[in-house]
Design a protein that fits this description.
- By secondary structure, the chain is of the alpha/beta class.
- The strands form 2 sheets. It has a 4-stranded antiparallel beta sheet, with no helix packed on it.
- A hairpin with a 2-residue loop joins strand 5 and strand 6.
């Protein structure tokens, strides 16, 4: 039916196995399938070569042949790698390296993403007392790479969790993806903790501590003088059946999702009741109206 209306139809699915062009030069250095290029960077740390064993080569210009989300991920990732190189060429130092050497970075700072830092940059950032604002879902969606969370923790650094993309907003998925991405890179379990016990509890506590510091907000723990920022989980949910204390965090983060949240209070004001925002209906109506207006 499409060919009856158009002379040609291009379908760029952007997923699945690579389709290699039958042309000369495919075996030259610097020619990759999209899958290999992204795998080298996201899972094998090629963006931090030679700290990691796997290299990746990008010239002054990069050509991406293909379509779909995978092609866009390659284009963005290649651009990010070149941005670091261009800063290094112009300033004589990598972005975070230059920042730490020329600006007083302290606990009042929050560096967003910071995905492509070297081991030394990660260690020095941790020493500064600044917080790293991580957005694992966004990084995964863009194919931008995996932050070296292990080195940050070993160096005594702090992180918070944010969501700077509306592709998916979920606290549990952000924390789960943070841990699982580290496992994929390091090929081991229970990575985002430097102590024994519950990984879920460590993820939750550490992200609360770093997030509160980044916001300059007295929050993140239930103590006198802090804001009453609280939430409750559905104790009757099957996912939480029979578990107690820290096991609740592991079940919620790794087996459950945000639907287990029943109530939320911000500074003592209840914002979520029975699993729904108190202004849910009003917000949904406005959203649908705006989307309809945009599409007209």
């Amino acid at each position: 039916e499409l060919l009856e209306e158009f002379d040609a139809v291009f379908i760029g699915s952007g997923a699945g196995l690579p389709y290699m062009l039958n042309i000369e030069g495919l075996n030259l250095n610097g020619v990759y399938s999209a899958n290999e290029f992204l795998t080298r960077i996201i899972f094998m740390g090629a963006n931090r070569f030679p700290e990691y064993d796997t290299p990746v080569f990008t010239g002054k210009r990069v050509a991406v042949i293909g379509g779909g989300n995978t092609a866009m991920d390659v284009a963005r990732t290649a651009k990010r790698l070149k941005e670091v190189e261009e800063v290094q060429t112009h300033f004589g130092a990598r972005p975070v390296e230059w920042l730490l050497e020329n600006v007083v970075v302290d606990s009042r700072w929050c560096l967003i993403h910071a995905t492509h830092m070297t081991k030394e940059e990660t260690q020095n950032l941790a020493k500064s007392g600044a917080v790293v604002g991580l957005c694992p879902i966004t990084e995964a969606n863009l194919g931008d790479g995996v932050f070296d969370g292990t080195e940050l923790l070993l160096s005594g650094g702090k992180y918070g969790i944010g969501s700077d993309s509306n592709v998916r907003i979920s606290l549990t998925e952000e924390l789960r993806l943070l841990e699982y991405s580290q496992r994929l890179v390091r090929k081991e379990r229970n990575v985002m903790t430097n102590k024994t016990g519950s990984v879920g509890r460590a993820l939750y506590d550490d992200s609360l501590s770093g997030g509160s510091q980044a916001l300059g907000r007295k929050s993140g723990s239930i103590v006198p003088g802090n804001w009453a920022d609280l939430l409750t989980l559905d104790a009757e949910a099957l996912t939480l059946s029979g578990c107690t204390e820290d096991e609740i965090f592991d079940r919620w983060i790794f087996s459950g999702d945000d639907s287990l949240v029943r109530e939320v209070w911000s500074a003592g004001r209840q914002m979520v009741a029975d699993g729904q925002h108190i202004r849910h209906d009003e917000i949904e109506r406005k959203y649908r109206s705006v989307i309809q207006e945009i599409r007209q």
